[in-house]
Design a protein that fits this description.
The complex is a heterodimer of chains A (about 650) and B (about 300). Chain A is mainly α and about 650 residues long. Helices cover about 70% and strands about 5% of the residues of chain A. Among the domains of chain A are: about 300 residues, no CATH class; about 45 residues, no CATH class. The longest helix of chain A has about 35 residues. Chain A is globular and about 90 Å long. With about 300 residues, chain B is mainly alpha-helical. Chain B has 12 helices and 1 strand. Chain B is globular and about 60 Å long. Classes of the chains: A mainly alpha (about 650), B mainly alpha (about 300). Strand 3 of chain A pairs parallel with strand 1 of chain B.
């Protein structure tokens, strides 16, 4: 070690600081504030230290490995490379900003357990996610992965007194352990093949055929569960919707990304992966994207809608990873750079706009007490700042210029189209089919977010609570403004992220990265800035032309074809808005509707209801779980209770083992 | 590099020509119906009148309602600088500009529909819902068409992509693929511009409408901006379709510009004829039409593989 503290050591110190941020509040039971200020301060300090470490790493550039000692099995090995550094950014950012937001959003006085427990697990969650990204040993990785999963469980069930929260966190707990099971299998196989637990190894191509295939399947299943890929997304909507809003922001902005991190590492397993790996990922990504956002359009709960939109974004990211894997198979460095670069830029982008949207949803929930979109309305007038921030997030997440979502989707489009059309001799034309899928995802995202801004924020209030809503204080708006600022800056200057992306791509595939021209040559990132600037200038110009000469314009009621006094109940609601699209995707969305019976020419008052449950959870997972439970209940015959029986079982087991053992 | 003259003509046409297309369409429809019809320049008079008028705002609306038309028009104009007209390249072209083109249109759609919902009117809500729903399919079809052209040209920029049919020796499979793409793009043109058979632009208070119903509450200059922007969008997509219908150059710039004008006019006449001889589809049937056009492009794509 040199005399300067290495970047990796700084990151571990930052993780320690964040990890212990909730502890002081728990120690001093009598403190009224419960350590709120301390926790926020420690999170902010930890995050600042972490960013300083990243800057130091960016200057040095090379991968640093730190060995702190050994475990009974495995070692305490950490390393910081370009890929890990990129994934650290969302963790550090959202840990700090979410904690700041939470200090006003989740006040001790308003909750039964106070904020102590939440803050304790918040810190542990942040630290364990950092450790997941930094870990370089399989056993260590599994330990911190499990710690992260448990921390997320305790965060999700913060409001355990509500039944739906308990159910959502239970589903999450089962899902995450199913994922961990796959990962244990993955690392066991890997360790068996490699003879060591060091991560992340590169398999030689001389291995037998089934090994890489089964590793790929296990890895994608295990990490895909955490990332929320369709059909493994069943835990995600409930958990995101029922967690406190800043926790939802952390889950969606950061926790899902650890799954993506794993998927990227799994794809880096072989120097020359079969092309079907990439094709499978492209397919999974496109399906997750389209179905995720189609389900989002159908949702009537603001936070569930945002949760499904996370599935969509994970799908977009996985499309990029698939493209990179295809590029690796074909030996095309440009596809690797554009695919992985686009995917990782989207990771960064999504960790800006999705937390922003969840925090805005938190503001709405805080002010109105409801997440039902059809009970809201008119919030643009009562909560103007929240509305502007939400609109920025919404435009960004639709991938529209001039905000940041456009830059990452552009990289992916360029990559897919290059794979399909440019240099056809060394391409894989079918990749071109993912481009229209991505276009459809984008258009559906527009539908989903126009629906939210239009129904929830525009129009007139549909309930008294909504009419008297108001913006929260600065402590809650400031973190959101920071995220929105990030969306604008990255949207206008995507080139700023290029060094980070290049280092991450080089860490993933050093061989191809050297021979590839830099990202700004491959993709028109400079033109993105130019187009954004021209767009803003021309909007300002047109607005100035039409804004200056007029006196105060006349006002009237909305023209509703002759109604003199329209009421809020006459407004269009979200279920009607999404009806056409839900009909189009009904084969997957499976909406449930209760149609009223209208007897005779003068029917009495009746109700129409429609809802969109999660088709996979309700129709596949729960029936399957029920059947498994019934099947396994046959085994109860063995569990009779007397100790003698159990002794007999032990004896039988030992005898059988002795017989089988060589 | 593009010469100054072409640049000037491009922007002059982009700004001045679009309303004329509406005039041509209306004149064609009137001719079919046995009427004399409005003068060709009537849309210009309509716009000028709207720009002089006062505005009335609903008390429900916010800044979104006013920003909608402004942002939409800006986005469409910016998209207009990416589209090649006739034998000439677009003023702005770079690898990947097709994505910017599609997403600028999407930005316009976001703000048009958000402005419609800002009024809280059920009618405008319906229009906005249909607009965003059909766009999901139209945008996929448009991109599928672009993928085929990317495979033809080996380029990711609209100008070379749409000039590739000129260079490609037009025979057999490639001509078939281009024909399929041209049909699909024309359907997308009709859908994106809310023309028959997807929507009927000549009625105002029908429930089955898409674009017109979204702008019920806009008045005066803002309505003028919306109509102007819609005309430019029609012009841009017509210019794109024209490349596939008329894939050759005459060699002389003046003749080329005249051919372009004649071609765009012919497409407008074609739209007018379709509006005269067809009825609007039932709303439920519109997705099938758009899916069919996307499937045509997939066939075109498959043809490029062999």
């Amino acid at each position: 070690m040199t005399s300067m503290p290495s970047a990796i050591a700084i990151e571990l110190a930052a993780a320690l600081c964040i990890g212990l941020s909730g502890a002081p509040g728990c120690l001093r039971r009598r403190m009224r504030a419960g350590g709120q200020g301390t926790a926020t301060a420690l999170n902010l300090i930890g995050s600042a230290v972490g960013f300083a470490g990243l800057v130091l790493h960016a200057r040095g550039g090379e991968t640093q490995i730190l060995l702190l000692g050994s475990l009974p099995v495995g070692r305490l090995a950490f390393a910081l490379d370009g890929l890990a550094a990129l994934f650290l950014i969302p963790i550090l950012l959202i840990s700090a900003l979410g904690s700041l937001y939470g200090s006003s959003y989740w006040r001790d006085a308003e909750h039964r357990h106070g904020g102590r427990r939440l803050r304790l697990w918040w810190g542990i969650m942040g630290a364990s996610m950092m450790a997941v990204v930094l870990a370089r040993d399989a056993i260590l990785f599994l330990i911190v992965w499990e710690l992260m999963a448990l921390a997320a469980f305790f965060l999700i069930c913060s409001e355990e007194e509500r039944a739906e929260v308990r159910q959502a966190s239970w589903v999450y707990l089962v899902a995450t352990h199913a994922g961990t099971l796959c990962l244990i299998g993955y690392f066991a196989l890997l360790g068996h093949a490699e003879g060591s637990t060091a991560l992340w190894p590169s398999l030689g191509s001389d291995g037998s055929d089934w090994l890489p295939t089964s590793l790929f399947a296990l890895g994608i299943a295990g990490f895909g569960l955490k990332a929320g890929l369709v059909p493994l997304h069943v835990w995600l909507p409930g958990a995101h919707a029922n967690a406190p809003s800043h926790v939802s922001a952390l889950l969606s902005g950061v926790l899902l990304k650890t799954g993506i991190y794993g998927v990227v590492r799994v794809c880096g397993l072989l120097p020359d992966p079969p092309i079907w790996w990439g094709a499978v990922l492209l397919g999974i990504g496109a399906v997750s994207g389209v179905l995720g956002i189609a389900l989002a359009v159908a949702q009537q709960d603001l936070k569930r809608l945002l949760a499904y939109s996370s599935i969509e974004n994970v799908g977009i990211i996985v499309i990029g990873v698939g493209l990179a894997s295809i590029g690796r198979s074909l030996g095309r460095g440009d596809l690797v750079a554009l695919g992985l670069g686009g995917a990782l830029l989207h990771v960064l982008n999504h960790s800006l706009f999705k937390p922003l949207l969840f925090l805005a949803a938190g503001n709405v929930l805080h002010a109105t007490g409801t997440r039902r979109i059809s009970s809201l309305g008119g919030l643009a007038r009562t909560m103007p700042y929240t509305f502007v921030l939400f609109a920025i997030g919404g435009i960004a997440i639709c991938g529209l210029p001039p905000l940041n979502g456009f830059a990452s989707e552009l990289l992916l489009y360029v990559g897919l189209l290059r794979a399909a059309g440019v240099d056809p001799a060394h391409g894989w034309a079918w990749a071109g089919l993912a481009a229209p899928a991505l276009a459809m995802i984008g258009a559906l995202a527009v539908a989903a977010f126009v629906k939210v801004t239009g129904i929830a924020f525009s129009g007139t209030p549909r309930s008294p609570a909504t009419a008297h809503a108001h913006d929260p204080g600065v402590a809650m708006l400031a973190p959101m403004a920071a995220l929105a600022g990030g969306c604008v800056v990255l949207g206008l200057f995507p080139i700023a992220a290029v060094p980070l992306l290049q280092r991450a791509v080089a860490a993933w595939d050093p061989v191809l990265a050297i021979a590839t021209p830099p990202l700004p040559v491959l993709a028109p990132l400079g033109w993105v800035s130019a187009a954004g600037a021209v767009l803003i200038a021309s909007v300002a110009f047109v607005a100035a032309c039409f804004g200056r000469r007029r006196s105060e314009p006349a006002t009237a009621v909305t023209w509703d074809c002759g109604y003199a006094s329209p009421t809020p109940r006459m407004q269009y609601v979200d279920a009607s808005f999404s009806e056409t699209l839900v009909g189009l995707f009904d084969w997957a969305v499976r909406s449930r509707r209760v149609l009223p019976e209208l007897p005779g020419p003068f029917p009495p008052a009746s109700r129409f209801e429609s809802e969109v449950p999660d088709a996979v959870l309700d129709r596949v997972v729960l029936p399957l779980a029920g059947a498994t439970k019934r099947g396994l209940s046959q085994l109860r015959a063995l569990q009779r209770g007397p100790v003698q029986m159990y002794l007999l079982y032990l004896l039988l087991t030992v005898v059988i083992l002795l017989m089988v053992a060589p | 590099m593009i010469d100054f003259q072409t640049l000037l003509v491009h922007f002059a046409l982009l700004l001045a020509l679009p309303p004329l297309l509406l005039g041509v369409i209306n004149r064609t429809k009137a001719w079919f119906a046995g009427r004399r019809g409005p003068p060709l320049l009537q849309p210009y008079h309509d716009l000028a009148r709207l720009f002089r008028k006062e505005m009335v705002f609903s008390r429900t609306t916010t800044w979104v309602f006013r920003a909608g038309p402004v942002i939409t028009l800006s986005a469409i104009l910016l998209a207009g600088s990416l589209v090649p007209f006739g034998a000439f390249d677009a003023p702005v072209r770079f690898s990947g500009d097709l994505v910017l083109f599609v997403y600028l249109m999407a930005l316009g759609r976001f703000f048009t529909t958000a402005a419609a919902l800002d009024t809280g009117s059920a009618f405008e809500g319906m229009g906005a819902a249909r607009e965003v729903s059909f766009a999901c399919l139209a945008e996929a079809a448009l991109f599928m068409a672009f993928v085929v052209l990317v495979r033809f040209s080996g380029s990711l920029s609209l100008s070379p992509m749409f000039h590739a049919p000129m260079i490609a020796s037009l025979h057999g499979l490639s001509a078939a693929a281009l024909f399929l793409v041209a049909v699909a793009l024309f359907v997308v043109l009709l859908a994106e511009n809310s023309r028959i058979p997807v929507d009927d632009p000549s009625t105002h208070l029908e429930l089955t409408m898409i674009h017109e119903v979204m702008v019920l509450d806009h008045s005066g200059p803002l309505l003028g901006l919306i109509l102007y922007g819609a005309a430019i969008k029609l012009f841009l997509l017509s210019a794109l379709v024209l490349h596939l219908v008329l894939p050759f150059t005459l060699g002389n710039p003046l003749l080329d510009w005249l051919a372009f004008l004649a071609g765009v006019g012919a497409i407008a006449v074609g739209i007018g004829v379709i509006e005269s001889v067809m009825a609007r589809l039932r709303l439920r049937a519109v997705p099938s039409l758009l899916i069919a056009s996307a499937v045509l492009c997939v066939f075109g794509f498959v043809l490029t593989l062999v």
